[in-house]
């Protein structure tokens, strides 16, 4: 059994309308969820295939970090699907720097985050103090590298060029590239 803590405002999303999302996670990930809506603690207990159940806590964590339930459930579609978090606050010197860094990652009108998502094929969400990524290993690496470039102060243009290059490499390698439709 694992314990995952999620923000208060994401509990409703995890449960879903009439408990539908919670039941779908329990069924597909072969786990039982015990949600404490008072403090945001979720107990994730394996009830079926232990290998499938390993993805359960990641699905709950992903929903807690701002992903839509369908995007989080994509972790079950393939053994290679990964969920990764980048702590923006840890890469910032102070509150003002944190706001600036987060703004740079989001971009004007959300354009930078959108481009990271479109060009990598991964799902990308910025919520609170974290940037979350769900995708295959190459996709997650591309977004992580792009985010690190932005956090290190690289101009957006060079980050976009890097993402275009990665996008073309993934297509050229014949990797199964699927555009994320979020």
From TrEMBL:
<dbReference type="InterPro" id="IPR004088">
    <property type="entry name" value="KH_dom_type_1"/>
</dbReference>
<keyword id="KW-0694">RNA-binding</keyword>
<dbReference type="Pfam" id="PF22891">
    <property type="entry name" value="KH_PNO1_2nd"/>
</dbReference>
<feature type="domain" description="K Homology">
    <location>
        <begin position="1"/>
        <end position="81"/>
    </location>
</feature>
<dbReference type="InterPro" id="IPR055211">
    <property type="entry name" value="KH_PNO1_2nd"/>
</dbReference>
<dbReference type="Pfam" id="PF00013">
    <property type="entry name" value="KH_1"/>
</dbReference>
<feature type="domain" description="K Homology">
    <location>
        <begin position="82"/>
        <end position="152"/>
    </location>
</feature>
<dbReference type="InterPro" id="IPR004087">
    <property type="entry name" value="KH_dom"/>
</dbReference>
<dbReference type="GO" id="GO:0003723">
    <property type="term" value="F:RNA binding"/>
</dbReference>
<dbReference type="InterPro" id="IPR036612">
    <property type="entry name" value="KH_dom_type_1_sf"/>
</dbReference>
<dbReference type="InterPro" id="IPR019964">
    <property type="entry name" value="KH_domain_protein_archaea"/>
</dbReference>
<protein>
    <submittedName>
        <fullName>KH domain-containing protein</fullName>
    </submittedName>
</protein>
């Amino acid at each position: 059994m694992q314990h995952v803590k999620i923000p208060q405002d994401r509990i409703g999303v995890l449960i879903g309308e009439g408990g539908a999302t919670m039941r779908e996670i329990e069924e597909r990930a072969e786990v039982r969820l015990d949600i404490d809506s008072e403090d945001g603690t979720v107990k994730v207990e394996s009830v079926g295939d232990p290998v499938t159940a390993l993805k359960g806590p990641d699905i709950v964590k992903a929903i807690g970090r701002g992903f839509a339930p369908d995007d989080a459930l994509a972790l079950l579609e393939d053994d290679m699907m990964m969920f990764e978090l980048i702590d923006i606050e840890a890469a910032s010197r102070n509150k003002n720097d944190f706001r600036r860094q987060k703004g740079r990652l989001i971009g004007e009108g959300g354009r930078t985050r959108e481009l990271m998502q479109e060009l990598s094929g991964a799902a990308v969400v910025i919520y609170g103090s974290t940037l979350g990524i769900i995708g295959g290993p190459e996709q997650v690496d591309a977004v992580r590298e792009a985010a690190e470039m932005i956090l290190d102060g690289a101009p957006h243009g060079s980050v976009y060029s890097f993402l275009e290059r990665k996008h073309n490499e993934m297509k050229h390698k014949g990797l199964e590239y699927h555009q994320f439709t979020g």
